[in-house]
Amino acid sequence: MAEYAVLAKNNKDLLNEIFSILTDRVKADPYSDDGSYAAAIRQLPTGLRAMAATHHLDVSLTLDDLGWHFLNFGEPGLVQEAGDGLRELGLPDVAQWFEEAQQIVQPLLDSARKGEIKSPGDEYYDGLERSGNRPRMDQLSQLAQDKSTGCSEDASGSFIYDSWIKYCRMKPENVFDN
Question: What CA–CA distances, in Å, run from 126 to 108, 120, 142, 151?
Answer without folding.
Answer: 10, 10, 19, 33
